[in-house]
Amino acid sequence: MKLADFVYEVKEGLGISFQAIRANKMRSVLTTLGIVIGIVSVTLMGTAIEGMSRSFNEMVSKIGADVLFVQKFSWFSSQEDFEMSRNRKNIDLKQFKAVRDQGSTIAAVSPLTGTGVPVKYRSLSADRIFLIGVNEQYIQVGGLNIEMGRFFSQSESDGNRPVAVLGYTVAEKLFPSETPLGKNVKLGAYSFRVVGVVAKQGSFLGMDMDNRVYVPITNFLQKFSNHRRGLDIHVKAANINDLENTKEELRGILRKARGVKPGVKDDFAINQQEMFIQTFNQIGGVIAAIGLFITALSLFVGAIGIMNIMFVSVTERTKEIGIRKAIGARRSTILLQFLIESAALSLIGGIIGIIISYPLSLLINQILPTSMPISVVAIAILISLIVGVVSGFLPANRASKMDPVEALRHE
Amino acid sequence: MQPVINIKNIKKTYIMGMVEVNALVDVTIQIQKNEYVAIMGPSGSGKSTLMNVIGCLDTPTSGLYEFNGVNVGDMNDNELAKIRNRDIGFVFQTFNLLARSDALHNVELPLIYSGMKKADRKARAEEALGHVRLEDRMHHKPNELSGGQRQRVAIARALVTNPSIILADEPTGNLDSKTGVEIMGLFNDLHAQGNTIILVTHEEDIARHAHRIIRVRDGLIENDHIVENRVLPGIHS
Ligand SMILES: Nc1ncnc2c1ncn2[C@@H]1O[C@H](COP(=O)(O)OP(=O)(O)OP(=O)(O)O)[C@@H](O)[C@H]1O
Ligand SMILES: [Mg+2]
Q1: Is B118 on the interface with A (CB under 8 A)?
Q2: Is B16 in the pocket of ligand 1 (CB under 6 A)?
Q3: What residues have CB less than 8 Å from A223, skipping those under 6 apart?
Q4: Does ligand 1 lie within 6 Å of residue B49's CB atom?
Q5: Helices first, then strands: H and E counts in chain A
Q6: How many Å apart are CA B15 and CA B9, to the nearest integer?
Q7: Neighbours of B31 (CB within 10 A)
Q8: What percentage of chain B carries pLDDT values higher than 90?
Q9: Is the ipTM beyond the 0.85 threshold?
């Protein structure tokens, strides 16, 4: 069949289909219910997953892919692991120094610890500030950008100087109309001189990353002794493609520094961005599997419904089929006519589904940064077309194979 | 001259469970161009079966059937559909119009299946409806037309492709006698314009419009003769 003939037949078939569907509006709409539910579930799932991965990507990009976090506990450990590792020793400065001095595959390394303190400047104060003790290399490890001034230097860090770098929000709150540089702020009971302000970072896992103040770790440990919690060691690897080597090196250094005997498991964890991605993929996978199951089930029910109603339609219209054949309709023409009808029926279900899920996707948008992606709409339309064609095939085939004389005799 | 229809020793057997029904036992007929033939016979004698075979709606169990010199037995489904579409115009006792479509669309239908462009087929269909004097009923659906008007729509549909032959199986069977006479007037006109017509009827009055009457009984041809005192074409129209 030539393309032009095909287009001609599709056009005529569409006309017949819509006439037939209009003649049975209620029945047609009810028939498509399964398709409607299937399409609602597939579009909402697509939207939710899209939104989750968008917010996740935003979030995870804040943890450098090449940064390793040496910590007491693994980010994603089971309850059982947690029970076992509860009595682990803290990480201390000696271990940090071992990493700094012995690590050969690292670009930068900083210890890190923190505590909440009130921050004041004259009459202005900022609450729920997280005070962080790090060294001068944290600017690289944490991927910080400087808004004004500078980060503290190595000599300030080693020399125990009372200098502070403010997070963006803190600077905004305490210095609404003057420069913070060179001013003395009160961190708890102690006075620190501001040398710089970090550029805006946004939030991570619900924490406001701009509500922070950075001070040299040595100074922090003297004034805000928080030894119960211990330190983390943040390490930026020299080469991202060699992350595994760096990890192995770190393990070696730390096992020695912490006196872990051969054959005994590590009593610390080396966390990395990758773990977030894996966990996310698992969660996303579960959601997708559930969504796919619901979608497949309702599409299956929808397909059966359409097949059923198409069989009814073919039987009801036996006489019509006989007439069409008697005046020269080919088998393929009849087949195409009924395939188009069932595809159109299913497509109507799909479109109703999209119309229903659009406002629901706006609801999802309240929680996740997303909108219904156009690709999901396209996929939904494609799916409903395919379901329509597949479920229409048997009835259409029956119609096309009818014997004209017998069909005409049908009342 | 080559006959339009050449049927030799045709047999049609239906198998119903264990019983064989011989609808056509042994039928041989030739019909020339521009003949006007009436087929008569008692109920169940095989008239409709014969018409369906001639109209390529049904295939005989055995025997030869040549249409315009081409062996129909060798044709596949698509070729049969094409013959029905282009070369045969069928008029049924029960009209067999599409209930949801108006008169114009019903008449256009064969042209749709032959792939004609919309503007052309609309013009042709309007012309055919003009032929049966239904210009003012083109957008009526079948249930908005009288029986006679419906049959005229069906005749327009049969005419619209300029077929080689028009087959009518009891075209007046569902009409009152006055309307039946009107319809026969139409067939007479068509014949006068050069069309070949075969019609099935029970009524001698109707059959006498034809040139030739074939009488069928129990699946066999009982009699095949030329009509002497023929009703003249056009006098009722
Ligand atoms: N599909 C079929 N299955 C079985 N038998 C059939 C079938 N169609 C027709 N017959 C039988 O074949 C015979 C001829 O039927 P046909 O319809 O040709 O008769 P007819 O001459 O047109 O009768 P009528 O004048 O009543 O229309 C009948 O005995 C009928 O019962
Ligand atoms: Mg009959």
Answers
A1: no
A2: yes
A3: A187, A188, A190
A4: yes
A5: 15, 12
A6: 19
A7: 20
A8: 86
A9: yes
Q: Tell me which of B172 and A283 has the higher pLDDT.
A: B172
In this complex, is the C-beta atom of B105 within 8 Å of any C-beta atom belonging to chain A? no
C-alpha to C-alpha distance for B65 and B68, rounded to whole angstroms: 10
Whether A323 sits inside 8 A of B77 (CB atoms) is no
Domain formed by B33-60+77-226, architecture? 3-Layer(aba) Sandwich (3.40)
Residue B152's pLDDT band (boundaries 50, 70, 90)?
A: very high
For the entire predicted model, the pTM comes to 0.76
B188 at interface of A, judged by CB pairs closer than 8 A: no
Nearest to B90 among A5, A8, A326 (CB): A326
C-alpha distance from B204 to closest chain A C-alpha (Å): 26
Say if residues B154 and B132 touch (Cβ distance below 8 Å). Answer: no
How buried is B89 (Cβ within 10 angstroms: 0-12 exposed, 13-18 middle, 19+ buried)? buried
Mean pLDDT by groups of 10 residues along chain A of 411 residues: 81 88 88 90 84 77 82 76 74 90 92 90 87 92 90 90 93 91 91 93 78 92 77 90 89 91 87 81 84 88 94 95 95 95 94 92 81 84 94 96 93 78
Question: Which tokens go with A240?
Answer: 């991202």
DSSP class of A178? S
What Rg do the C-alpha atoms of chain B give, in angstroms?
Answer: 17
Q: Break chain A into its structural domains and give their ranges.
A: 3-59+278-409, 89-267
Q: What residues are paired with B216 via a beta bridge?
A: B221
Closest CA to A373 of A45, A137, A37, A2: A45
Residue A354 near residue A377 (C-beta atoms within 8 A): yes
Residue A127 is which amino acid? Answer: D
Helix, strand, or coil here: A209? Answer: coil
Residue type, B16: M
What is the rounded CA–CA span in Å between residue A187 and residue A189?
A: 6
> Which residue shows structure tokens 């003769």?
B225
Rounded CA gap, B56 and B50, in Å? Answer: 10
Instruction: Provide the pLDDT for residue A375.
Output: 85
Residues of A277-293 as b/e, b for ≥16 C-beta within 10 angstroms? eeebeeeeeeebeebee
Cβ B201 under 6 angstroms from ligand 1: no
In a mutagenesis test of the B interface, which of A5, A327, A402, A405 is the best target, namely the one with the most B β-carbons within 10 Å?
A327
Q: Which residue has the tokens 């001070």?
A: A215
